[in-house]
Amino acid sequence: MNTKALLLVIGLIAGALVGYVTRPQSAEIKLPGLNIQITGEGRAEGGGELTSDQWQHIGIFAAIGALIGLGAGVVVGRRA
Where does the sequence pass through the membrane (predicted)? Predict the structure, then answer.
């Protein structure tokens, strides 16, 4: 596995972990024809199912981590 791919995967995993740890506190109520999501300002604590907003938060952080990892891989690849 080359350096770019390795750092991309490491960045993706690290970003997802950071996103999971920092996910916002959120509650989701689903009724037929009605979907209510409430997001608080604090950090989520405890377990439970992840809401779609929390998944989106984790995905954004994973994408940012992947971009940082890929950028680091390109820099390391040029210096080698």
Answer: 58-77
* Three-class SS state of 5: helix
Q: How high is the mean pLDDT in each 10-residue block of the chain (80 residues)?
A: 89 94 80 78 71 88 95 86
User: Would you state the torsion angle of the CA atoms of residues 55, 58, 62, 65, taken in this order, to the nearest 10 degrees?
Assistant: 160
**Per-domain residue ranges of the chain:** 3-79
Q: What is the pTM of this model?
A: 0.78
The structure tokens 């009724």 sit at: 31
Are the C-beta atoms of residues 65 and 15 closer than 8 Å to each other?
Answer: yes
